[in-house]
Amino acid sequence: MKRLAVLTSGGDCPGLNACLRAVIRRALLANREVLGIRRGFKGLMDGKIIPLDYKSTSGIINRGGTFLLSARSEEFHRPSGRKKAVHTLKRHRIDGLIVIGGNGSLRGAWELSKETDTAIIGVPKSIDNDIGGSDYSIGFDTAVNTAVEAIDKIRDTATSHEQLFLVEVMGRTRGFLALAAGVAGGAEEVLIPETPTNIPKLCKKLEEGRKKGKRSTIIVVAEGDEAGGAFEIAKKIQRKTNYQIRVSILGHQQRGGSPTAFDRILASQLGVGAVEALLKGARNKVIGRVNGKLILSSLDIAWKKAPKLDQNLVRLAEILS
Ligand code: F6P
Q1: Is the pTM of this model over 0.85?
Q2: Which of 7, 87, 180, 243 has its CA 20 to 30 A from that of 108?
């Protein structure tokens, strides 16, 4: 394991730079050469490789985004695309590859692992927190905090104008981000794909809240909710109530910003853990933190075994709504 390489792939999130810093510093400490692949798998196919040194890691732990750049690549999911990637790995004599990615990218890494001798370690990152093998993925905590900060501000205006706000958060097909942001933001309702959304029942509850003297209401909507996005749900509620409804889509701000301390620590632990795993001879695994401990699972767990939603948190959201 002489020469390592690292890449960030898929949608960016806060904490990627902190993870890169940890990977590079740990590899250098072990006197290993470490290369950076720019623009994720796209760069791996195109041979966009740069040498990394200690200097590349200074002043980046607090920075959002990824200094290696990221991309989503359809081509990589085809055998012809991966053939190019295998060629780059061979040409640069890369013994170990660290893929910092979401479940799509880690699936790509797993496909690649069957076609190359290079050992691969996946590191889970996603504001969606939908990756198997780890309780948390890098970026989730920061995105939750960003959403909560926005919800707090929206509540001020919602209260002043006695309005009903639907705040749509990201999360793709899962409700982790919506649930955490909704509970922490004191939302009256949290609509997530994992639980059925019943509009008539919801409207009845809203009316009951109004009778009890509620002046403003915040409903957090996961973008993947089966009843539709926030605009669609707003229309459905409007047909049944006379609320003044406003919609706020938080969007990509949830992917940016300086990572929280939680994300910086997680990113540092997983980055160091990934390098140490390679040095110990691990191959084709995903590294995660489960119940506070670093663990390695088979790489396919990352996308095959989607984590379950915390039912206690679902209950909490219902009780406190
Ligand atoms: O997976 C991260 C994520 O931000 C999802 O929450 C969202 O659905 C998606 O990426 C948006 O992707 P894009 O920026 O490519 O539209």
Answers
A1: yes
A2: 180
